[in-house]
Amino acid sequence: MIHARLALMCVLAVAGPSAHAAVCRLAVEADDVMQFRQKQLAISQDCSDVEIKLTHVGHQPAAVMGHNWVLVRTADIAAVTIAGQKAGRSLNFQQPGDKRIIAATGIVGGGESATVTFSTANLRAGESYTYFCSSPGHGLAMRGALLFGGADAGHLTAASGSKVAPRADGGRASPGAAAPDGT
Fold it and tell me: How many angstroms separate the CA atoms of 88 and 176, rounded?
């Protein structure tokens, strides 16, 4: 009986925190014609953290056609863009310490990728969020909407419209996977 209780406590101790913390992974592709292939990303409120992997599927080097992925509240995009231009390439066109930037990657060139992970704790369902490339002149063409929570968010990926389940164990979910509750 004591061994059964100890085993149960060990299972609960291991499963407890991770069972409630879902890391949701999404992929975004950028190319040499200044566009994100995904125009909208949706994140469920079940996600405690989000990992975005930006892959530059083009061939041009970062010095010629470098891209990054920057997430802000839509109302902040103009001010963050201006501050980023002042910061310059050496700082990835992102003003250091800019609290308006929710998450951002560094700049990547053709064949390269960068990943950023951020908490959803400060995201609010129904608020308007925009992701964009902050390289000079790219932001007007290279932008998309990030939806958090709400009926439209679910676990949809913009590229395929397929459901993607966040996984508490940190594994990569694939399109068509079941939701966290197994549905």
Answer: 41
- Phi, psi dihedrals of residue 14, rounded to the nearest 5°: -75, -45
Contact predicate 123/102, CB 8 Å: yes
Separation of alpha carbons 26 and 78, rounded Å: 25
End-to-end Cα distance, the chain: 35
22 within 8 A of 166, measured Cβ to Cβ: yes
105 CB burial (10 A radius; 0-12, 13-18, 19+): buried
User: In the chain, what are the domains?
Assistant: 22-153 (2.60.40.420)
* Contact assessment for residue 37 and residue 64, using Cβ atoms and an 8 Å cutoff: no
Q: Show the tokens assigned to 55.
A: 């892959």
CA nearest neighbour of 142 among 36, 13, 31: 36
Give the β-pairing of 40-43 and 143-148.
parallel
Contact 115, 105 (CB under 8 A): yes
Q: Is the pTM above the cut of 0.85? A: no
Spatial CB neighbours of 29, under 8 Å, sequence gap ≥ 6: 36, 37, 38, 54, 55, 56, 57, 159
pLDDT at 166: 37
Least confident of 20-24, 86-90, 153-157: 153-157
